[in-house]
Amino acid sequence: MSRILVYTNPSPGHLYPLVPTLTELRGRGHAVRVLTMSGALATLRELGFDADPVDPRIEAIENDDWRARTPIGAQRRDVATLVSRAPLEFDDVCAAADGADVLLVDVTGWGAQAAAELSGLPWATFGHFPLPLPSRDAPPYGLGLTPRADLLGRVRDALARRVILAPLERIVLSKLNALRAEHGLRRLRDAADIVTTPPLTVYYTAEPFEYPRTDWPDSVRLVGPGAWDPPAAAPQWLSKLERPLIVVTCSTEFQDDGKLAAVALEAFADSQYEVAVTTGAVDPAGLPSVPNAHVARFMPHRPLLERAACVVCHAGMGITQKALAAGVPVCAVPFGRDQFEVARRVVVAEAGVMLPAGRLRSARLRAAVRETIDRTAGAKRIAAAFDSAGGAPAAADALEELVTTRESPHDHDHQLEDRARHRDGVGAGGDRARPGPDRRADSS
């Protein structure tokens, strides 16, 4: 059995999707140690895991992307936060890796990834949000663009990459490559290298919610979402519920999205719906009191989703996939970060609708919820796809395979060639790579 060191960025949205996999690994006899946010240590220890905090200086670095006035400005602030954490992450993982047999690190933990690569141990990343991986079958990441295969779409995508995303990529790579050069690691050539360098990336989603692609790298395994809530009792009022339920959620990491809760309460006050609002990082004290609403910072999502007709959310990947996994359609109101990408996937999958935060008004939200509920069939279709994706057992299988099939030098050279072909738009082996879902249980 292996000793597995797990490193996550300090956020519930980064840790919680991983918990079912960690539980599966421990159930198979592996020793699991987790470095993560300090606020989750007690819960993880109660679950029986060895858990320690990341360097407190990492948690002290605020992600202030919500202060930006444009989506591009928000992206710049977001990646600046991740880059500034990287040297501290590197030291964190180097100090903790002694005695580990395998490392599993956050796909956004760029310093942690460099330390894992330097360690010489088998290592993998896990992705809990849409991967910023270029593909001929998907638009460039970050803008929430609708996939288009026609000439206009190809021109649009090329311009977006060159004019908007390339300058951001250069900023990120200059910082990361300086750190990597300091420790003798090879230079990252482009943003795709960040995702394709790990020998394995466990990706917590599945097609067709993720855009179907013919050029997934062989290192990426789609296993479906990791849905998990901290242990908590269901609200008492839920057992007496007679009306349809709308669940409204704000982000657990502050991004100034309290307007979503306020407008939802106004929109559905005295309506035919019961409303459950979880405000997350937003203080609920200033929200209006509504007779048919229940407001708290946190409520367990699972029992709410069992009764919900619709979820209205900030388009965070966690709550969005939880809702869809329960067959509940989503009204996605993105505010920033990866949320434009998540919201667009909801629309393309016909599992809900998107309402831009700038258009968030009571009447528009009511209309959007009606339209969202009409897409329940699409949500159930995505739920079925998630069910068949393998889940935590598939993720654990992939990690065990990584440990038992350490790369030979020849294998490593072949993998680097495959990654180069992927950057050129050709799948592994010089042909079209196999689609992600068909490779979930591939143990070759």
Give a concise summary.
The chain is 42% helix and 13% strand. It has 444 residues and is an alpha/beta fold. Helix 2 (19-27) packs across helix 15, helix 5 (71-96) runs parallel beside helix 6 and helix 9 packs across helix 13.
Question: Can you give a write-up of this model?
Answer:
With 444 residues, this protein is α/β, with parallel strands linked by helices. The chain has two domains: 3-224 and 389-426 and 433-439, Rossmann fold; 236-387, Glycogen Phosphorylase B (Rossmann fold, 3-Layer(aba) Sandwich), CATH 3.40.50.2000. 42% of the residues lie in helices and 13% in strands. Strands 3-2-1-4-5-6-7 form a seven-stranded parallel sheet, with helices on both faces. A six-stranded parallel sheet has the order 10-9-8-11-12-13, sandwiched between helices. Mean pLDDT is 87; it is low at 407-444.
